Amino acid sequence: MFEKGISQNLILVVILPLALLCAIFLYAVPNSNFQLNLLSSCQQPALSSHPNSEPEFKILIGILTLPEKYERRQIIRNAYALQQPATQNGQIDVRFVFCNLTTDEQKIFIAMEIMTYRDVIILNCTENMNKGKTYTYFASLPHVFPGKQRRYDYVIKSDDDTYFRFNNLVASLRDKPREDVYWGKGFEPMTTDPKNPPYMVGMGYGISWDLVEWISTSEFARNNSEGVEDIFLGLWLNIGEKGKNRYDMRERMYDFHGEEPKDFPPETIAVHMLKLDFTWAVTLRMFNVTNRLESSGLYHI
Ligand SMILES: *[C@@H]1O[C@H](CO)[C@@H](O)[C@H](O)[C@H]1NC(C)=O
Ligand SMILES: *[C@@H]1O[C@H](CO)[C@@H](O)[C@H](O)[C@H]1NC(C)=O
Ligand SMILES: *[C@@H]1O[C@H](CO)[C@@H](O)[C@H](O)[C@H]1NC(C)=O
Ligand SMILES: *[C@@H]1O[C@H](CO)[C@@H](O)[C@H](O)[C@H]1NC(C)=O
């Protein structure tokens, strides 16, 4: 009886909370690295006999933002956590990208974020918008993710006022080549050829990994790293005759322009200009992000 009591207590005190913790992490922390790490410690032997299904392709979304924007970051984190796993086919890793931290507060708070979420990349630069942060981002990635095997098939640069719909994003890239790709929303007024815009606008554009490597070695890109970031990325590729496979997502990526359901069509890949909490809230509501909230006696919303 005594022994039984102990083992029951042991289950209650140690094993149950551990299992719960594992379950919570697996559910709530979709970051793939984290998930994999935890899987290895949480997974039951029976489960681990299943073969790991490798995604068909991998996308990195780097959100260039500022260390002090803690609240915005948390909204974005939650919004993307609730979209994972995007599909069976494509893996999406979202990372927040900073230049050097500058204050003691940042060094503690960001360190905690990294330890909790592992979704931060800190580049060797001083915070700036059009003085080369985008160049440093792309040029650093081959060093951030060293190794012969390419870590991602596509790398997207985005900002903290853009919301991506993962399923549509994955679907838009799945059937595309994995090399020499320049993808995004073309800047329209500057071109008459919709198939060949001079550049993709800054809300979120993607290039294939070979072009990331090319940028990191291109002397022309290094010499011309400071300027309006989206125009300059287009310039590097145009001058270097790179990114011949261009995919303009057009009206599937748009600026926030209204609060009606018709303003958020199902084929949407990204909504931009989400500068205010209000516009984030409208967008997330329109995409039914919180519909799955379970009812409970613990809260009412
Ligand atoms: C970081 O950037 C500074 C200034 O551009 C440079 O002097 C330094 O060598 C860089 N450090 C590393 C580790 O790349
Ligand atoms: C960024 O911080 C690193 C490490 O503290 C330092 O070596 C580097 O020079 C800094 N870079 C810039 C551009 O300030
Ligand atoms: C880059 O700048 C250096 C120094 O100004 C110059 O010598 C070189 O020719 C430039 N390279 C390209 C490709 O523009
Ligand atoms: C959100 O849910 C409503 C009601 O269930 C539905 O009519 C609408 O199509 C959904 N919107 C999206 C973008 O899935």
How are the elements arranged and paired?
Elements: H1 2-28, H2 32-42, H3 45-48, E1 57-64, H4 70-81, E2 90-98, H5 104-117, E3 120-122, H6 133-144, E4 154-159, E5 163-164, H7 166-174, E6 181-184, E7 204-208, H8 209-217, H9 219-223, H10 229-239, E8 245-248, E9 253-255, E10 270-272, H11 277-286
Parallel strand pairs: 1-2, 1-4, 2-3, 6-8, 9-10
Antiparallel strand pairs: 4-7, 5-10, 6-7
Helix pairs in contact: 1-2, 6-8
The structure holds 2-acetamido-2-deoxy-beta-D-glucopyranose (4 copies).
Can you give a write-up of this model?
This protein is of the alpha/beta class. It has one domain: Alpha-Beta Complex (Spore Coat Polysaccharide Biosynthesis Protein SpsA, Chain A), CATH 3.90.550. It has helices spanning 2-28, 32-42, 45-48, 70-81, 104-117, 133-144, 166-174, 209-217, 219-223, 229-239, 277-286, and strands spanning 57-64, 90-98, 120-122, 154-159, 163-164, 181-184, 204-208, 245-248, 253-255, 270-272. It has a seven-stranded mixed sheet with strand order 3-2-1-4-7-6-8, sandwiched between helices. It has a three-stranded mixed sheet with strand order 5-10-9. Helix 1 (2-28) runs antiparallel to helix 2. The protein is globular. The chain starts with a helix and ends in a 15-residue tail after the last helix. Bound molecules: 2-acetamido-2-deoxy-beta-D-glucopyranose (4 copies). Residues 219-220, 223 line the site of one 2-acetamido-2-deoxy-beta-D-glucopyranose. GO terms for molecular function: hexosyltransferase activity. Belongs to the glycosyltransferase 31 family. Its cofactor is Mn(2+). The chain crosses the membrane at residues 9-29.
